[in-house]
Amino acid sequence: MNNFESVVAWQKAYKFTLLAYKVANTFPECERFGLCSQFKRAAVSVPANIAEGYKKLSKADKLRFYNIAQGSIEECRCYVYLSKDLGYVDAPVFNELMEALSDASRLLNAYCKGVINNGYADDGQ
What we know:
ribosomal protein; ribonucleoprotein; 23S_rRNA-intervening_sequence; 23S_rRNA_IVS_sf; elongated
């Protein structure tokens, strides 16, 4: 590995972000500066923090950025529930979003465990 694009957790997070943008763009105009904006901001934070953490030199710095990404995943999970409960997405879209989030979360958690347990420091040095 020599760049963040090769990290599968980043790939899944990026895929989720594209989906989140597509879905948020269908929200009512009244949500433009509310839920839509917050959802997009949190979604883009996930792959961005994975990318930034990738090049950090110390394990602690890497994990700090990966943890921020994990927090943004949970923030997105809240927005997905709100989107469903407010009637902005139907069940199939809700399920697609949740599955994409779960994939990204699972892979990021595994990636973090690799950094913690194996001292895996990517090629970000």
